[in-house]
Every structure is written in structure tokens, then in C-alpha cells.
Amino acid sequence: MAKTARTKKGQKAAAPASKGARQGGGKGKPKASGDKAKAAAGKGGLRARAQRAQAAKQARSGTRERKGVGKFLREVKVELSKVTWPSREELTQSTIVVFVAIAIAALYIAFFDEAFTRLIELIS
Known about the structure:
The protein is mainly alpha-helical. Helices cover 61% and strands 5% of the residues.
């Protein structure tokens, strides 16, 4: 009874009976046939073809993607409308928290600066 192996799509495929029957350098993967190689190479061409078809469709309909400052400013306006802006209370509280954190960091640095300065004076 031949062993079965799963292919990429989850279908069962019969495994070769011996190493000599394998193709593709003995790693168990068959070499791509000419049709498969052409299909794999043609995928990039499909994307380019789709882009050209879309551009042609837009040209026929008279609509095309606008570029420039006007479009940029409209997009900025849309994105800024999505922002959740803080209330005055939230902004005040956040500002106070930042100032307190800065004061604590300044005291921490000043303490260690003074400690290391005295330590260096004792050593020298």
C-alpha cells in the first residue's frame, strides 16, 4: 500500500515508492512542469494587466485619480475628523502628570549628580 502525503491544498497525493522515482533533487517535490512554470511566471503579468485595465476603464469613464495639494488637504481633513481630541480637563490632567514626571526625573538626576560629585571629591 502506497503512503499518502498532503499537498498544499489539503488533498491526498500518492507518495513515490522509491527514491529513484522522485523528481527535484530527491527532496520529495516534483519539478514544475512547463505549464506550471509558465503560470507561476505569469502571475506578475496578471497584476500589471489588471492595473492597465483599470486605468483604461477610468480613462473611458472620465474619472481619474487626482493628485496634488488639494487632494492631500482633503485627505488630511478626513483623517483629522477621525481623531478623538481630549477635553480641556483631560488635557490639563495630562499636562500636570508630565510636569510632575519631569520634576521627579530632575530631582533623581540632581541627587545622583551631587552624590557622585562628593564621591569623586573623597577619592581624589
